[in-house]
Amino acid sequence: MKTLSLKSWGHLPALAWTAAFFVLPLIAMLLMSLSERIEGRITLTWTFANYQAFLTKAEGTFVGALINSVEVTLLTTVLSVLVAYPLAYILAYRIPRQWQRLVLVLTVLPFWTSYVIRSYSWLLVLSENGIINQSLLELGLLSEPVGMGNSRFATVLGFVHFFAMLLTLTIYANLVQIKESYRKAAADLGANSLQTFWHVTLPLSLPGVAVGAFLTFVLAIGDYITPQILGGSKELLLPQAVMLQLGRQADFPLASALSMVLMLVVTAAFLLSARHLKMGRV
Amino acid sequence: MTDRVEFRSVTKEYDGNVVVAPLDLSIAAGEFVVLLGPSGSGKTTLLNMIGGFASPSSGRVLIDGQDFTDLPPARRPTATVFQDYALFPHMSLAANVAFGLRMQGMAKPARLAKAEAMLELVGLKGFGKRGVHQLSGGQRQRVALARAMAVEPKVLLLDEPLGALDLALRRQMQEELVRLQKRSGATFVHVTHDQEEAMSIADRIVVVNKGRIEDMGPPDRVYLKPATLFAATFMGESNVLAGRVAAVSSGEIQVETPLGALVVPGSALLASDVHLVLRPEQLQLTPPANGFALGQARVEELSFQGTHCRCHCHMSGQDLVLRAPVSAGLKTGATVTLHAARDDVVVLKA
Amino acid sequence: MVGRFASWAYLGIALLFIFLPVLVLIQFSFQGGMAPVPPFDGPSLRWWAKVMANRKITDGLWNSLLVGLGSAFMATVLGFLAAYAMARKRRRLSGLYQFLLMAPITVSYLIIGMGLQIFFNHLGIGKSLWVIGIGHVVINLPLTFAILYSQLGEHQANIERAAYDLGASDARVVLEITVPMLWPSLLAAFFIAATLSWDEFVIAFLLSRFDVTLPVVIWSMLRSGLSPELNAAGTLVFGISILAVALVELLLWRARRNRA
User: Fold this and answer.
1) N or C end of chain C: which has fewer CB within 10 A?
2) Are residues B192 and B289 in the same domain?
3) Please, what's the b/e burial string for B48-79 (b: 16 or more CB within 10 A of its CB; e: otherwise)?
4) Do C169 and B90 touch (CB under 8 A)?
5) Are B84 and B189 in the same domain?
6) Would residue A32 count as lying in a domain?
7) Are residues B109 and B157 in the same domain?
8) Do B89 and C256 meet the contact criterion of CB atoms below 8 Å apart?
């Protein structure tokens, strides 16, 4: 009777699902990255040619794409934290408690809108007739409209817009868990509000920042939509390079190798931040 | 007559740590037993072994002479009142109280009537439709009690149920627990670390420390004549004099202490180490009948307690605590002569 | 730390930043002419009419809802079962199991989608909404698991113990105590999984052929040229999302109000 209890088998379906549709596909992709196309057929030859291609092919375009991806992602993560933290702080400590949930939901409402549409709508804002160009022209800061789309600036802007909302959620969730008595105790012991923030609130809120920053890093570095729509093809990011191999060339082995490299970068980021990550808290 | 609950050489180990050393304990039907001990003493583990939430590493747990060691909580004639009350947050109070009856298959009208009666018993008449979130801590406590008692368990197990309540409410609930226990005739086993609570409600106190029973008996006996040094210091305050037996005669021993040689009733091996224990209120300023003088002490610290003055004294390198009557008018720095009645002294093997 | 005025000013600027693209999008869904970008020459409903008549969009909407609700249901059920078993029984391999269950969160959607594409292709299983749903369960399972696991602490364990103590069987404890007790969290987990799935692009793109989901439809509209129809479609999606958020917030609010 005990063996039939949910406690003893409940984890098995989820583990089986993860093993079958996550672990096995990753292994398939790893094997694919060690294969090559011979006369149109993909054969596992245990070759490292695809990884060599990553380093050398197309005059280092792929290595460049990797560097671009890491740069854009790091910039995005840092800027998103800088935008989101004060917002989460104001929501947690400046808005009366009974209104907090409503204001929070309203603040991150665009978070729930279509990801593709959200990226695209920045094109409208950034276009030569768009609101930003028009405002700058009227203020006399510009003498003629500037095309702001199709650039790294646009990509980072689109990313920060989305991930600042995600980070606001994780940081807010962390901030409201910090007991008010800690801040009162610090103030009582003579800390001014800046010292209280620096020595008490900020350190205690770092887990929320770490979780949000890590999610930002993972989701941003693997995203294809935002750089494709807003960044265009002037400079290639790694996911764009992967999709290019899949789409036009159907070169699965090379795309797999590129993906493995991408995964390696994320794993490195995970190991660097693993200490601070407690997913359950958010 | 068989005992209601019986532990037979029960032990419990967690990852190689001994939580309960081999232990025997019998609890009679209708008894109100309090397991008293510091946190980590193993008292809650003992409770959980009766309730079926923990199983012993070895030994048997019997209820009414029947072996229940390996049966799950659901199949035991016990019910537990949890420390955090563990009320079902998604059910009304009536549904909470009626839950056990529903599990027994009782029909809805009957169990709702019983639930209402139980709520009335704990002073929550007419609260049945309310939700758990609308209650204060004391009210939750009562609902938890009503829920556990509704199934008419042979043994009701209470795991520090009053820990979260304020002092006044705790006193009131202590009285109500005793009233409910006498009325229902059920056996209550109550776990606490509060010795005052234990003394005010128990028929019998079982003092537990490091998985062993240090002492057990009626509260007055355990307080006045503790069996071990631990029982003496955990159950209220004690003055302890370490000494060595210098002479033994029939019914009396002479003990060398820091305060000099004292002759007290008792028996011990010649030259063995002993502890003499005296309660603060047993140290007196005037000679009692059949008493002896301990010597002169200097008053170091005084605090007014309403009914008495608590007084720290120093005498020959020994600190002593006594309760002096307010009328004695003691002052810090004064010198007093301390006395004690011979029969009050408890001799414990060191 | 931040002055009152500075707080409100920052909140205002942040809200402007967050809502700016959405507001522009909504405005230009009522564009009159052919250009999806400023200057505005509306208002007009011509692009809304076009969107409503576009079978691709309505089909995509339906497919997205199907995949979103289905995969969210699956992810919530699997996540709950796993969270319950992991929280209520210690195992020698608990650490490894937890690592495995959480692992997909550290891998980009693109890689998961590509892995599944290669894997299913190798098995000879064709692309379909089913396969997309499978992928979405993979990415959402860590979230539902983590949310529900965090809600199965010692206090909840005590509540379950009380039910066992009063004679409930394993099955009744789960069905009558644990599930109703966790209802708000189950609802939240389901909702988060459903919204992430319904809006997910790259897995849906890689694993679909004939039946496509809404993000893929919008993507292909985008590729075939910008038009105000896109703005109207985007506004429609935004409206549906807001309705869903409002509905769930209302449900959650009611569920939480009835709790301690």
Assistant:
1) C
2) no
3) bbbbbbbebeebebbbeeeebbeebbbebbbb
4) no
5) yes
6) no
7) yes
8) no
Reduced to 3 states (helix: H, G, I; strand: E, B; else coil), residue B35 is strand
User: What domain range includes position A261?
Assistant: 41-281
Check C110 against A122: CB less than 8 A apart.
no
* One domain, residues B261 and B195: no
Judged by DSSP in three states, C207 sits in: coil
Can you give the pLDDT at residue A282?
40
Residue B63, CA atoms < 13 Å, CB-side half-sphere: 20
Q: Write the CB contacts of C30 (distance below 8 Å, at least 6 apart in sequence).
A: C42, C43, C44, C45, C47, C48
Q: Which residues of chain B have pLDDT under 70?
A: 1
Taking only Cα atoms into account, the Rg of chain B, rounded to an integer number of angstroms, comes to 24
Q: What are the tokens at A152?
A: 């790294």
**Domain count of chain B?**
2
Q: What is the 3-state secondary structure (H, E, C) of A231-264?
A: HCCCCCCHHHHHHHHHHHHCCHHHHHHHHHHHHH
B206, B233, B260 — which closes off a domain? B233
Among C162, C180, C258, whose Cβ lies nearest the Cβ of B80? C162
- How does pLDDT run across C193-213, given as a tens digit for each residue? 998 898 899 999 999 888 899
Helix then strand then coil, in percent of chain C rounded to 5, is 80, 0, 20
Any C CB within 8 A of B331 CB: no
CATH node for C56-257: 1.10.3720.10
Last residue within a domain, chosen from B189, B204, B233: B233
Q: Tokens 């946190």 — which residue? A: B39
What's the CATH number where B342 sits?
A: 2.40.50.140
Q: Which residues of A touch C206 (CB under 8 A)?
A: 246
Give Cβ neighbours of residue C115 (< 8 Å, ≥ 6 apart).
Answer: A22, A25, A26, A28, A29, A259
- B140/B164 Cα distance (integer angstroms): 11
Q: Torsion over CA of C99, C100, C102 and C107, rounded to 10 degrees?
A: 110
Mutate to test the interface with C, among B15, B103, B152, B159 (most CBs of C within 10 A): B103
- The band of C260, judged by pLDDT with boundaries at 50, 70 and 90, is very low
Per-residue model confidence (pLDDT) at position C258 = 65
Domain ranges of chain C: 56-257
Instruction: Compute the Cα dihedral for A223, A224, A230, A236 and give only its sign.
Output: positive
With respect to residue A3, please indicate whether it lies within any of the assigned structural domains. Answer: no
Residue type, B338: L
Q: Are residues B258 and B289 in the same domain?
A: yes
> Which chain C residues contact residue A82 at CB under 8 A?
none
Q: Taking a C-beta distance cutoff of 8 angstroms, is the pair B119, B136 a contact? A: no
Query: Are C189 and B96 contacting, i.e. CB atoms less than 8 angstroms apart?
Result: no
The CATH number that applies at residue B77 is 3.40.50.300
Per-residue tokens: B245: 């037996």
Range of the domain at B127: 5-233
Q: Two tokens at A107?
A: 């603040």
- Supply the DSSP symbol for C126: P
- Cβ of A161 within 8 Å of Cβ of C215? The answer is no
Cβ contact, residue pair A24, C244, below 8 Å? no
pLDDT band with cut points at 50, 70 and 90 for residue A281: very low
Query: Distance, in angstroms, between C88 CA and closest chain A CA?
Result: 6
CATH no. for residue A125? 1.10.3720.10
